[in-house]
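dumping this here before i forget
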Amino acid sequence: MAIKIKDDIYWVGVIDWEIRKFHGNEYSTHRGSTYNSYLIKGDKNVVIDTVWTPFAKEFVKNLSKEIDLDKIDYVIANHAEVDHSGALPELMRHIPDTPIYCTKNGLKSFKGHFHEDWNFQTIKTGDKLNIGQRDLIFVEAPMLHWPDSMMCYLTQDNILFSNDAFGQHYASQYLFNDLVNQTELYTECLKYYANILTPFSKLVDKKIKEVLSFNLPVDYICTSHGVIWRDKPTQIVEKYLEWAENYSEDQVTIIYDTMWDGTRTMAENIAKGISEVNKKVNIKLFNTASTDKNDIIAEIFKSKAILVGSPTINKGILTSIAAILEEIKGLGFQNKKAAAFGCYGWSGESVKIISEILNGAGFEVIDDGLKTFWNPDEESINQCIEYGKNFAEKL
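structure:
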């Protein structure tokens, strides 16, 4: 069912209530998602993006109820990733000669995905497409978050079709930001930024400031996932500028995995030591083997410092810690402090391994970490508390 945004402008996407994993199994979507496609009617009729492949037939069928497909003049393809473009083959089967506007990198991506020689028209920042009394102005946004990404702006109606920027994985029957639960909305926005856009924060900051320099009024931000921002739409732009600036809160996150609870005991007593020095700091503990990794990443994003713990196993570390450290390394967090801890039985390499990874990932590793022998006894527990106190004093 189409939902009216403004006169002659409609959301024609799909709500996916069931999806719980995205990007393969890389991103958790506890609240589902949406795949937002838009239809502009007028002197020229335009479809902006499509939906994910499993919904292709549903999408085209529903779109045909809103407009005779043969009357679609242009297709705008802001991004080639198949959650945006998966229905293109089904749509183009009906309108094979219709021009598709994309970036130069987009052309490579679309041909790589679909191996089709459709009527592609490549654009660059500042190019305009006249659609009657209005223009669509294109803005390339490379690495936000793929090389091919772009946005487009509709004049007169003052709508920014922002692609993956400013979105969130959030399914709701309420399409607009002012109608949904604000805590849920911003939880998903921050999680989305932390897990997907953090590596590109400098580019995010630069691109937003470039778009703002155009001095274009923005009444709506129409995203590719989640809600449309119509109530004070630039509030999410302001958040992005804040998040892109090496963001942190007064929070310390402790992540660990444990075999027989020794490293868990260390984590809890290190936390106790931190809180004895600083009762205001928000301390959060997560067992990486039993907690969603994307939720943990969001908490690390908010933190000014982290501690990472694992016992030593086979001269290495437990796999859940190894996995999340690999994730952390790729995200490129900045201006965060860190340290390692863990218990051991005979060789004890885990703390050194974790410290080296954290250092290579851009964290300021503040000391050599803490090791305890076997299951912590009372003396070792007191060492953990003292370690936590010292850690807190270095923040």
